[in-house]
Amino acid sequence: MRKLVLLALVGLGAQLVDGSLGMAYGVTSTTLLLAIGTNPAAASATVHLAEIGTTLVSGASHWRFGNVDWPVVLKIGIPGAVGAFAGATFLSGLSTETAAPVMAIILLTLGVYILVRFTAFGLRRDQLGKPLRKRFLGPLGVVAGFVDATGGGGWGPVGTPAILASGRLEPRKTVGSIDTSEFLIAVAASLGFLVGIGSEDIDFGWVAALLAGGVIAAPIAAWLVRHVPPRVLGSAVGGIIILTNTRSLLRSDWIDAPDGVRYAFYAVIYAVWAAALAYSIRRHLAEREAERPEPGGAPAAAVTGDTPPEADKAAAPSA
What we know:
Layout: H1 2-21, H2 25-35, H3 40-64, H4 70-92, H5 96-121, H6 134-151, H7 155-166, H8 171-197, H9 204-224, H10 230-250, H11 259-290, H12 309-315
Helix pairs in contact: 1-2, 1-8, 1-9, 2-3, 2-10, 3-8, 3-9, 4-6, 4-8, 5-10, 5-11, 6-7, 7-8, 10-11
């Protein structure tokens, strides 16, 4: 019972992050399942089955708050579903001894990407309104879907920064569109895992616990996306993912590092993580200060950084 409550809390926290940042539900949840000894394919299958429900509720909530660009959802979601099914069947064919370190490497890479991307660069806003083309979204969807299924997460970490980096879709609609299209990826990956490994290795009680927490958090996250600074949240989540998966990798059969080596790695990660969080907070506060209007004047236009709540309110359609 205690484990189910913990999983529900993880599902709630992961969905709060995912719904406000556009990534990290799968990466965070899968990381925890691996940490408690779950088979890699079963862990990814469990998360994707739960995501069928959480992404449905999350997508409806984002739609309600005007955070969804439907052409983008279709152009990236359909190719993403193809990539997710392929990735699920690929992971299902790997042995547990091979799959666990491979998944830890994928998750660790995604964690480093999230930490660096949001700490160092924030969000671009200088090309808003320019169209996103199918020839960009299609291949992006296939790659992101494949990584998502094989890594237990990755749709958001690959898709969200790529679209944000283009600067052509405002941040709240990028997050909302990625979260909404993830429903297609969750369905396709789940089908791939059910074909590849069947259902006997999947604990549906765990699926229900993750789903319950995620469903509670989804509407809150859709609202938070207009208020929480993504830069700070990205740095926090990236550090958690790096630390957890470094631990898994160092303790795997591939490396089996002695205690002294592991503790040295942990110390370095904690130091870098703390510095990244401090830098992100300083940059966010500086950018927010720069965007304040001068006495008798208008605020300066932001080129990078987080989206101020005032701008989101102005951009959101009236209910």
